[in-house]
From TrEMBL:
SUPFAM superfamilies, A to Z: TPR-like
Name under which the protein is recorded: Outer membrane protein assembly factor BamD
InterPro entries xrefs: BamD (IPR017689), BamD-like (IPR039565), TPR-like_helical_dom_sf (IPR011990)
Keywords: Cell outer membrane, Membrane, Signal
Domain Outer membrane lipoprotein BamD-like: 35-183
Entries under PROSITE patterns matching the protein: PROKAR_LIPOPROTEIN (PS51257)
Entry keyword Membrane: yes
Amino acid sequence: MFKIKHVFIVFMMASMVFAGCKSRFEKIRLSNNLTKKYQEAMRLYGKRDYSKALILFEELSQKYRGISGAETLNYHYAYTLYHLKDYTTARYQFKFFADTYPSSQYAEECRYMSAFCYYQDSPNATLDQENTYKAIDALQLFINLYPKSERVAQASKLISDLRGKLEDKAYANAKMYLDMGDYDIRNYKSAVVAFKNAQRDYPDIKYAEEMDFLIIKAQYLYAKNSLENRQEERYTEAIGFYNDFVEAHKDSKYLKDAEQLKKASEEGIESAKKYLAAIAEDQAKYKAFLEKTKKPDTVFNNTILKKSN
């Protein structure tokens, strides 16, 4: 995918160049003098004309392999892509540089920049977080490879930022289940599970207190919307979550609302018990009625049997 994106960028840059008359740049680009092309590419890079520099670096990177100047060329080639915000291709080129020139003075920097490009490509929390996970892995690899680097502190901060994004994603997903409970009560139970999983995966998640409260709320709504014969068990579980919440968050701003949910759960248990008791009483009365209405039939049937004998 990144190759397609990169080729498109190069094509667009080349098209812009062809649109004008044959300039000094065009003459150098079309020449076979690699030294002049190299010098022009570096000059354009220095002037921050990355669009034109990329066209030359793209060609030179293929022809300079294994010869003098290749290291410096590839270093600037990677940064050209970075400055053009083609982070997908840039991270590949930075990694290529670090793998190809492990003893270079720029190897550590390029390994870091390869990871940083993943960070730049990490989307907002509402989207798929594949690149976020890859960024964390790449930054952690950098820390492991260069534990004494001055960039370790910044890499650690970036990892913290990325984990914060994953926390946001986990919170939003769990909240979505809670919000969709009106459509299917099983979503309330899924919300409880999702909130718990988020706290398991991210023990220091910044939403911990709110999540513990929302677990009570989700379980309460799950119980409230259940059949009466399942309500007592589910309300009891909500009360258990309330007890855990109070123990962990004694001074929580959600404490009053949590207490109301506990009280409602206790009332729900009593209501369910009364309902089930009334149903049991009605069933008993109906059973007694059936037994009573059967007796005359039995006497009548016995009389008929005697006469027939």
